[in-house]
């Protein structure tokens, strides 16, 4: 099993993009856990940092530690229930940006490959016929000399879905310390995956809320 070295970034401590009585939206940096793990050293995370200032803050969804970008948190039980239902029922819209190894020959498409746990290499995931359905839309944004910038829109929200789907296409996300090789690890200092846009319905007003944070790679 891979040893997890956790050194969360401290600057900025929190990047809050929106706040009202019901929700808080942040731009999470790469290297910061969404919520604490079992080990004491994982206590410092996006959730606990928010709870230091806003005791009512509740986790609604997660981004991988290495993934940066937009996250929404609830501030009361009704907002929590509404937001979790939207994520579970695929009523949210999520757009990620990734830089992957190699040149994609197909400019756009849909990846429909079921994903399940890699029982021999936890906590890794893998494409598996017995896994859960997983769907990702992709579109090429820019072709570089040895890599490609792609837009990824997951329909489902499986663990490591975007990493596993791009691996299955033969285009590992640069900087991926779970599924990458020596070449792709050396190509970037961090995982080149960013949750750039998130849209959902506000739990109380019913208005469509849309947030965007440009990637920095």
UniProtKB/TrEMBL annotation:
Keyword annotations: Isomerase, rRNA processing, tRNA processing
Asked whether the keyword ATP-binding is assigned, the reply is: no
Report which reactions are catalysed by this protein.
Answer: a uridine in RNA = a pseudouridine in RNA; uridine(32) in tRNA = pseudouridine(32) in tRNA; uridine(746) in 23S rRNA = pseudouridine(746) in 23S rRNA
Q: Which Pfam families match?
A: PseudoU_synth_2
Entries under Gene3D superfamilies matching the protein: Pseudouridine synthase
What PANTHER family does the annotation carry? DUAL-SPECIFICITY RNA PSEUDOURIDINE SYNTHASE RLUA, MITOCHONDRIAL RNA PSEUDOURIDINE SYNTHASE
* Protein role: Dual specificity enzyme that catalyzes the synthesis of pseudouridine from uracil-746 in 23S ribosomal RNA and from uracil-32 in the anticodon stem and loop of transfer RNAs. Responsible for synthesis of pseudouridine from uracil.
Write out the similarity annotation. Answer: Belongs to the pseudouridine synthase RluA family.
What protein name is recorded for this chain? Pseudouridine synthase
Which species is this record about?
Answer: Shewanella schlegeliana
